[in-house]
């Protein structure tokens, strides 16, 4: 069954964000294609690029201990072709000191967007986080 319905895409994205907020890596990856491409873009530059579900799982598990809390809040949805873009407000509290000078207990608050690209079967084939 093809997930061409915008409501179905939105439900998949909501489930992904809920799993992210709950630090549920298995749930985050549930609707992702095996050959998922993940990119993080900050200030117009790609700061992280991952290919494949196994690599994404490893990265997601590696960053779990960095935060005592983390939460993405979804703003508006926008659909174009095979892509759905969401506005995201991100809030996190660090559990450790980071090399960039941020300290344990510091709060991160960012606004950005996430772009999800879907296959005809409804799997997420690409996820780009932009801040």
From TrEMBL:
Residues 14-126 form the SnoaL-like domain. This is Ketosteroid isomerase-related protein. Keywords: Isomerase. GO terms for molecular function: isomerase activity. InterPro entries: NTF2-like_dom_sf, SnoaL-like. SUPFAM superfamilies: NTF2-like (SSF54427). It comes from Chitinophaga eiseniae. It comes from the Bacteria.
């Amino acid at each position: 069954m093809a997930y061409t319905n915008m409501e179905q895409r939105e439900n998949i994205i909501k489930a992904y964000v809920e799993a992210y907020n709950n630090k549920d890596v298995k749930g985050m990856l549930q609707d992702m294609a095996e050959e998922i491409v993940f990119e993080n873009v900050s200030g117009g530059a790609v700061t992280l690029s991952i290919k494949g579900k196994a690599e994404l799982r490893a990265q997601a598990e590696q960053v779990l201990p960095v935060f005592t809390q983390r939460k993405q809040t979804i703003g508006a949805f926008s659909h174009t072709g095979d892509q759905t873009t969401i506005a995201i407000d991100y809030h996190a509290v660090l559990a450790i000191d980071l090399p960039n000078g941020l300290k344990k207990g510091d709060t991160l608050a960012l606004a950005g967007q996430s772009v999800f690209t879907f296959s005809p079967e409804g799997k997420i084939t690409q996820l780009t986080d932009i801040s």
